[in-house]
Amino acid sequence: MPPPFFAENMTKIELAWRTPEALLTAFEDVPHLAFLDSGGIVSARSRWSILCVHPREILSSNEPDGWAQLQRLLRRKRDDVHHDVPFSGGVIGLASYEAGLALEGLQSRFRPLIPALTAMAFDGAFIFDRREKRLFWCSDSHSPMPPLPPPGRVERARTLSRVPLSPDMSARDWKDAVGATRASIGRGALFQANLTSRWHGDLPDDADIFSLYLRLRETSPAPFGGFLKLPRFSLLSASVERFIALDRDGWLETRPIKGTASIGRDEQEDARIAENLARDAKEYGENLMITDLMRNDIARVCAVGSVSVPALCQVERFTHVHHLVSTVRGKLACGQTAVDLLRASLPPGSVTGAPKHAALKLIDRLEGSARNAYCGTMFRIGNDGAMDSNVVIRSILISGGKVEIGAGGGITYPSDPQREFDEMCLKAAPLLKLFR
Questions:
Q1: Where are the domains of the chain?
Q2: Domain 5-148+164-253+331-433 in CATH 3.60.120.10
Q3: pLDDT tens readout for residues 246-269
Q4: What span, in angstroms and rounded, lies between the C-alpha atoms of 45 and 192?
């Protein structure tokens, strides 16, 4: 094993390579765990995975000052940490959809299952370099590495429970809600709204949540997945969507996803589906509106003239579907922080609608249950000021013996209710399959 690397206030130790699954299994029984999981094809956006255990402090808040408490969890911003790893100390957490509602001055008619804001402060992290197959322990405060059992072959019986899941809206209710959304758009109340539904079920007392996550990451590898484990709830995510990334120098990027199509049975069909998605006027318009919304949101905290859209409505292929993806970039204004950026942009525009405030009110009137973690964001903020975050989609929430998953899609005036229902079911299918 190479000797530890020490810089000012920084420790970096290279370990023998272990897969994320192997190291996760070593910490299966810890009460608090945060794993930011990059899966699928290795790219610049999915090179690193991050595992943290044993937080020094935990935040759980439903209060307006929760954001100030989150800022206080971070150590004073420093520029002397090692820059070739994405994270060596800071906070990892979850802002629920209802946290975003509160930032818009709204409150849901539904009672959420989880706190609005949850965060854990860590003094070090295991860093997986998926491209180079290298594993490091990194700490910007010389925190000692948690003890590890000797490496070995992972042998684990994956016992997954069959859980009947029931939707909070019937197919008829869903289509009626699509019709009501289209009517609101027709009256000029808004341009677009993201309509979603959730499936709920009772989880057996002996359910193996850890194995459920291992199975999820195996069947639905995703670039912005993750696993948060706390005594009150667990979040298992296979998100394909980045929310906002912020580098140490203050440059930020958000990649809104709108527009979905299935995967083909062969390369020729796949290429044809992707081409049709790229030419779909309805899907293009949906993505364009949300891209403009995100551009406006980040402009609240960006330097004047720094916001740009370098990529608009590009087709990207994921494990189970194609999506249209755009890219918006900007430079954080002087004096603004990652926490300010989250406060300015939640809830994510790609899962709300435009104008955002009007869409949020309509969503709460039409949907059948609280969104909770779904359509919120899982985030990491380093002590160096950098941040990355996802949109919590393709995810499973487990809390108080209950399990829920969500799916949905953007509704515009040309939307066809049956097509929107089919698209929602397409997104939910890989998650529902895990419980059958």
A1: 5-148+164-253+331-433
A2: yes
A3: 999 999 999 888 777 888 888 888
A4: 29
CA-nearest of 119, 92, 144 to 387 is 92
Question: Judging by DSSP bridges, how do beta strands 353-354 and 257-262 pair with one another?
Answer: unpaired
Task: Respond yes or no: is residue 258 known to be catalytic.
Answer: yes
In the chain, % helix, strand, coil (3-state, to 5) comes to 30, 30, 40
Contact 331, 247 (CB under 8 A): no
d(CA 397, CA 410): 22
Task: Over range 86-112, report the average pLDDT.
Answer: 97
Residues shown for the chain: 436
Token reading at 164: 């009947």
241 belongs to the catalytic site = yes
| Alpha-carbon distances of 185 from 104, 173, 188, 359, rounded to whole Å | 21, 18, 5, 10
How high does pLDDT run on average in the chain? 91
Q: Which two tokens stand for residue 272?
A: 């044809």
**Per annotation, catalytic residue among 229, 258, 356, 427:** 258
**Rounded-to-integer distance, Cα 340 and Cα 225, Å:** 23
Query: Burial code of 142-156, b = ≥16 C-beta within 10 A, e = fewer?
Result: ebeeeeeeeeeeeee
Give the Å distances, CA to CA, from 19 to 54, 127, 229, 379.
20, 11, 19, 22
Greater confidence (289 vs 73) lies with 73
Q: Which of 98, 241, 283, 404 is catalytic?
A: 241
Residues facing 317 on adjacent strands:
322
pLDDT at 321: 80
- pLDDT tens, 38-67? 998 888 889 999 999 999 999 999 998 899
First to last CA, the chain: 44
